[in-house]
Batch of 2 targets.
Target 1
Amino acid sequence: MENLKKLKRLTAFDVFFEEDGFQPLYRIPSLKVLDTKNSFTTKEFAKLALNRPDIKCAYAHPYREWEGFEYMKCKKCGNFKVEFSGVDLKRKNFCLQCDSKKCAELIERFNHLKLN
Ligand SMILES: [Zn+2]
């Protein structure tokens, strides 16, 4: 992995980095885009955001937006729900408006995992 010094974009849909999480990727300075599913823990995404804020990854944030996806529409208010990062979350999709308390908790959880 570390020999790929010029790698700019990595698609890691079905890849699992066993022990080190995303750590091997921290050492590829050229890497700017990481395409992945929500198949890593919140902590791994949070640490990626902390260590490599320059890598674009949809899940290296507390949540990602799914604007325009009908099945992500909130039945109560009609806004689109967001998907929180972390395969370890039991439930991931919440409405920022109707589930605002839970959303605030999960955002806080992400930021806590980032710094601890
Ligand atoms: Zn709603």
Target 2
Amino acid sequence: MSSRATLVPVFVLVLAFSERASALTSYVHVTVKALQNNGGYCPTTRNCTGSYYKQAQFGVNRPLRDLRIYLKSGNTTIGQGVTNVGGQTLIAFFWPPPDPLNISILIKFEEGNGRWAVRNLSGGVVTRQPAVGMLPYTPDSWAPTMRTVTLGTAAVPDEHANLFDVVTKAWSNGLSEDATLQSLFTGVSIRGFTSYTGGDCPTSCAMPESKIIKISEIHRYSMIPMHEMGHIANYLSHRGGAFSYGGCYTYPSECSGFPGSASGVWYPDSPEWGSASFEEGLATFAAVAGYYARSAPVPYFCDYASAPCQAGTFDVEISPTCGSGSAGMPINVTRYFWDLYDTVNDSETIEREMHRVLGVLYSFPDGTANGAEDEPRVPLDPDEDGRSLFDYRKYDDVPPAVWSANCSPSPGD
Ligand SMILES: [Zn+2]
């Protein structure tokens, strides 16, 4: 009996080892591209130094980065990956797959670290699932099977793939440079597309408390989704506090009961309430930083779809002509932030990195007092204009010369 007792465990060990050795791994290298149809690119007629998105990249298949994809065999997930800057990922999967004739690549429009997902209006993550046929057995990771998935065509671009692409640019080129946002910017839901004639965010909006962004059908293929990402970033600087920007726009006719309702429409070059021009101008700064590096001499913002920003839209680096109401124009707030951030010397030599520009937002004191982070909660007072650029300047330690280059807001609170 004693010899049999020792034989049994030895036999089990050998069996276990041989099973492990016979488990096979195969590799597939997947590239995901989409027909690039987003607007706001830098046209060949303009100085595109520092542009992350030039005309040559428009209308052609471009890689989709930071995208989560799954390898499916029938209904079974057999592998997964996140695409790199080249839209590529190497996926290992057990061989043989359970349903070898039915292999597909499930693309979920989710950012690889869970920072955001592109969803439909009811909240479901948007997916694509192209079949890729049979995959051969390729056990060497350095010689995998190659597969490329291309979403959309010039005739029918993929609107959700383009939405994913544009918000990825906002994050990877700009907002991600702020370490605090690195930890806070998660779980954002980006939903498309609302009707321009409906009652639900007809001109796009961000609902920061719930981290939901809704994009209008009129803002498909535009820079606007990056602007909405900027609203989320600003909200997160309130450290979860009682953010209460009320959407009072046109100064002074809207929101007579300030802070009032959340209705109304703003324009980059129309005078808005100080709190509105600050909120919208800062959000637009985030959008510009998604498309242009700090070295760009001619960074632009617009909401044109599938086209470059047109003449008459917004060069963010120029020093504007200042007249009545200029201080309340959101685009001039954007220009102020851009001057803090850029490395181009147009009457100022300040070169602050993104974390320093946004970091000032965290230095607002708590509360609803004048100059505090939730100032819009104070009752209407003609001398108080919400959380504004004027308030920001109290904490940013920047000389007044930079203020006036961008139509410094007149003294107020
Ligand atoms: Zn906005």
